[in-house]
Amino acid sequence: MQDLPGTPLSAAEPDRPPARPHPPRGRSRAVLGLLAVLVLVLDQASKAWALAALTPGQPVDVLGRVLRLSLIRNPGAAFSLGDGATWVLTLVSLAILGWVLLGVRRVAGLPWSIALGLLLGGALGNLLDRLVREPGPGRGHVVDFIDYAGLFVGNVADIAIVTAAGIIMVLAYRGVPLGGHRTRPARGDG
């Protein structure tokens, strides 16, 4: 007998598909960790190469003026914003790092693992520069060397961070939580 009007007689709803099992969290965390380490190693290796091979003020054309290698030491953020607040950028990097590490506990899907792995590796790459490079700990300048048509100069860590931001925006738009299941149907889904 029904307790309340409109309550289904059976516990299951026949028109709803069965829930998918969560992907293994261990595999998701492994992908995230490996990707973060890969980004960090590529970033630091490319910066070491740039410091050894490039001279500040002497750009090297790769694809004409559209893509050049131009070594700078950036005390600020993207577009050299915040030049006088390097220590604030260090704190922001630490906050991002903390947010990602909290998310690692909940991540259970490949898209989020990739996004957070890229974000973690990129944040660590630029944070490491701020901690160990001149002029001193917490105030270090980030090594940038990839010049995009004179609009801005970045590095491998920046590429990873921007890619992660794009993936996170798509996942958020589609309603995919860190646990790996969409909370609302995407456009075009029933």
UniProtKB/TrEMBL annotation:
Q: Which parts of the chain span the membrane according to its record?
A: 84-102, 109-128, 148-173
- Pathway it belongs to? Protein modification; lipoprotein biosynthesis (signal peptide cleavage)
Q: Name one GO biological process term.
A: proteolysis
The record places the active site at 144, 158
Please give the catalytic activity noted in the UniProt record: Release of signal peptides from bacterial membrane prolipoproteins. Hydrolyzes -Xaa-Yaa-Zaa-|-(S,diacylglyceryl)Cys-, in which Xaa is hydrophobic (preferably Leu), and Yaa (Ala or Ser) and Zaa (Gly or Ala) have small, neutral side chains
Q: Which Pfam families match?
A: Peptidase_A8
Q: Which PROSITE patterns match?
A: SPASE_II
Using the UniProt annotation, give all residue ranges assigned to the region (Disordered): 1-26
For this UniProt record, the keywords arranged alphabetically read as follows: Aspartyl protease, Cell membrane, Hydrolase, Membrane, Protease, Transmembrane, Transmembrane helix
Mind telling me which GO cellular component terms the entry cites? plasma membrane
Q: What class of enzyme is it?
A: hydrolase
Q: Read off the InterPro entries from this record.
A: Peptidase_A8
**What GO molecular function annotations does the UniProt record carry, in alphabetical order?**
aspartic-type endopeptidase activity
Q: Where in the cell is the protein located?
A: Cell membrane
Asked if the record carries the keyword Hydrolase, the reply is yes
> What does the record give as EC number?
3.4.23.36
Topology in the membrane? Multi-pass membrane protein
**The family this protein is said to belong to:** Belongs to the peptidase A8 family.
Q: Which PANTHER family match?
A: LIPOPROTEIN SIGNAL PEPTIDASE
Q: What does this protein do?
A: This protein specifically catalyzes the removal of signal peptides from prolipoproteins.
Q: What is this protein called?
A: Lipoprotein signal peptidase
The organism is Phycicoccus endophyticus
* Designated gene of the protein: lspA
